[in-house]
């Protein structure tokens, strides 16, 4: 059995998130699995490093899948059959199995999903369980006219935010905490303890970018953090109140869930 890792980017606007769902085929995971199944002739299960929500985008989603010996042999056979084409003789065709898989995926996937790389991985590598950190970026637009071409990827905010106060609040959020107050899934049974390594806020003339770096994130966690920080920026919440909010472990006390359109999974890192 051969294990593969791939880096995927997608515009999540029209999808119901990453994870395959029983009542719809409109997810990123389903689209990837459908094309791989077409390639190898039988089902292939794709595992993502993070289950991005409906409407959330990714520039650097990491995913992993395994091919059985029969599936791998089919890929190698297709590679061999293509070795005598004009494209291959010109040196432009796939030279390795991973090149063929990447080329095939990008040929048959929808235009808003792209595979940046496919590489062989160690047998025990798992894109989700081996991830050491993730980087999400949330874009808040402060000038609608400047985002005509980025409107699907920015949350347009009407008003002025106190960025200095927001930065003070981010200091309280760094480190290892129980983030139950920022958890969007009340039925979750697993630990809600996560580590945020850094939150960087960058203000430009037309937008405010919030970059979150952490060991992992709960469902809707980044968007709830953004909604809470926006309340701080609006003066509705004292930056110092973040301590008591974390201690309360009560989702009802945190801010609203910011719109999905502004959020992008930028990168997944492995030690």
List the helices and strands and how they pair.
Blueprint: E1 2-10, H1 28-40, E2 46-48, E3 57-67, H2 69-81, H3 86-89, H4 97-108, E4 113-121, E5 131-141, E6 155-156, H5 163-173, E7 175-178, E8 193-203, E9 207-214, H6 221-234, H7 242-248, E10 263-270
Parallel strand pairs: 3-10, 5-6
Antiparallel strand pairs: 1-3, 1-4, 2-3, 5-9, 5-10, 7-8, 8-9
Helix pairs in contact: 1-4, 5-6
Can you walk through the features of this model?
- The protein has 271 residues and is an alpha+beta fold.
- The protein folds into two domains: 2-121, 2-Layer Sandwich (Alpha-Beta Plaits), CATH 3.30.70; 133-270, 2-Layer Sandwich (Alpha-Beta Plaits), CATH 3.30.70.
- It is built from seven helices and ten strands.
- It has helices spanning 28-40, 69-81, 86-89, 97-108, 163-173, 221-234, 242-248, and strands at 2-10, 46-48, 57-67, 113-121, 131-141, 155-156, 175-178, 193-203, 207-214, 263-270.
- Residues 84-90 have low confidence and may be disordered.
